[in-house]
Amino acid sequence: MFGLAIYRGYIGTYSKGDSKGIYTFTLDTNTKEITDLKLAAELKDATYVTISDDNQFLYAVMKEGDAGGIQSFSINPQTGALEPINKEITADGGPCHISVDKAGKRALSANYHSGMIHAFALNNDGSIAKTVASAQHKGSGPNAERQEKAHAHFAGFTPDERYIVAVDLGTDEVVLYTLDGENLAKHFTFNATPGSGPRHIAFHPTEPYAYIMTELSNEVIVCAFDAIPGTLKEIQVVSTLPEGYEDLSQGSAIHVSRDGKFVYVGNRGHNSITSFRVNEHSGELSLVEFVSTEGNWPRDFRLDPTESIVVASNQESGDLTVYSRNKDTGKLSLHKANISVPYPVCVTFLSTPL
Predict the structure, then answer these.
(1) Beta partners for residue 113, in sequence order
(2) Hey, is 82 helix, strand or coil?
(3) Residue 12, CB half-sphere, CA atoms under 13 Å: how many?
(4) pLDDT (tens digit, 9 = 90+) per residue, 63-115?
(5) CB 231 within 8 A of CB 209
C-alpha cells in the first residue's frame, strides 16, 4: 500500500513574520527531497491541521479577531491548493489542536487559553455543520506560571472511537468523554503527576497501551488502556531528555510508528527527537537515541506515509529537517536541514501518493 513515491504534505504555521497560513510541499520518498514548497491557503494562526481519511478535506484551527474556530478546505492533491469550504467560530478564541474521526462525521478542537473542548458535526461535502457539544475544563496545577487554570491542549478519539480523549496541561488530567447527543459527558479522568503538564496522547495501533507526552516535565507516561470500560492506568514514566540535562526544555509532539514498535517525541529547548523502543509484552519504553532537530523549538514532526522518512518542524528557527528512518532499529539519520518555512507548527501528509 505504501510504496516509494511522491506524497503531498501540509504545514500549519503561526501568523508571524512572513507567515501567511497553511503551506504545502511534495516529498519524494526515493530521493527524500522536499520540493514545490508554497502557500496553500491564507489563514490566521492555522497552527494545527488535520486531513480526512479519504484525503478529500483538510481542517485547520484558526483565529478571527478575538474569536476563533475551525476552517474546512477541499484539497487539490496535484497542485496542493486548498479551496475554502466554510468555518465555524466559537467565542473562546482560537484553538490549538484539531482531530477528525475516521468517517469524517465529527471534528474536535481543544482550546489552550479557555480550557474548552468542542465537538463539531461534519457534512458529506466536508463542510462544518455546527458545534454539537462543548466541555469546559476547570482546575489548576502547582506550576503558577503555566497551570494557573485549565489549558486543554489535545482533543482526539480513542482507537475504536468509543470515547473522546482530552489532554489538559493546566489541570494535569487526561479526560475520556462520551458524546451523547449534544452533551460531552465525562466518563473517566486520569490524573498525571502534579506539575507534569500533559500535552498530547498517542495510542498503540494494536495493543492496549497509550503514551502521554508531558510538556512541563519532559516525560512520557506509559499507560495501560482498557478500551471497553474506558480507563487508563499508569505503568511507567520515562524522561525524554538525557540524564543530567537541566536547561530549559518543553515536551512537544508524540507519535507511534504504524507497526507499534517505536515511540518518537519532540523536545523544545533541547531541540531533539527522542526515540524509544516498545516492549511488545508490556508496552514499556526503552531509550533508542536522541537526535538533534538542527533547528530551534521543534513544535512537531511526522512520519511520512511510508514511515521511511521523518519531517520535523522547528518553529522558532523557521525551518524543516528531514531524516531517513531505519524501520528495524528505529534510528533517524539526518538527510537535510534548514528548509525554510516561516513559524511552522505541525506537519501532515495525504496518505496516498500523487
Answers:
(1) none
(2) strand
(3) 29
(4) 998 899 999 999 999 999 999 999 999 989 899 999 999 999 999 999 999 99
(5) no
Side-chain half-sphere exposure of 49, counting CA atoms within 13 A = 35
Strands 332-340 and 106-111: unpaired
Residues in the chain: 354
> Based on the number of CB atoms within 10 Å of its own CB, is 144 exposed (0-12), middle (13-18) or buried (19 or more)?
exposed
- The pLDDT tens digits of the residues spanning 248-273 come to 999 999 999 999 999 999 999 999 99
Could you report how far apart the first and last alpha carbons of the chain are, in Å? 13
Of 215, 269, 302, 299, whose CA–CA distance to 16 is shortest?
Answer: 299
> If we measure between CA atoms, which residue out of 309, 220, 323, 305 comes closest to residue 267?
220
Query: DSSP letter at 193?
Result: P
20, 35 Cβ separation under 8 angstroms: no
Strand, helix or coil at 312?
A: strand
Side-chain-facing half-sphere of 60: CA atoms under 13 Å: 33
Claim: this prediction has a pTM higher than 0.90: yes
Closest C-alpha to 354, from 78, 81, 82, 79: 78
Distance, in Å, from the CA atom of 196 to the CA atom of 15, rounded to the nearest integer, reads: 29
Q: Report yes or no: 57 and 73 within 8 Å, Cβ to Cβ.
A: yes
Interatomic CA distance for residues 122 and 179, integer angstroms: 15
Report the C-alpha dihedral over residues 33, 36, 41, 44, rounded to 10 degrees. 50
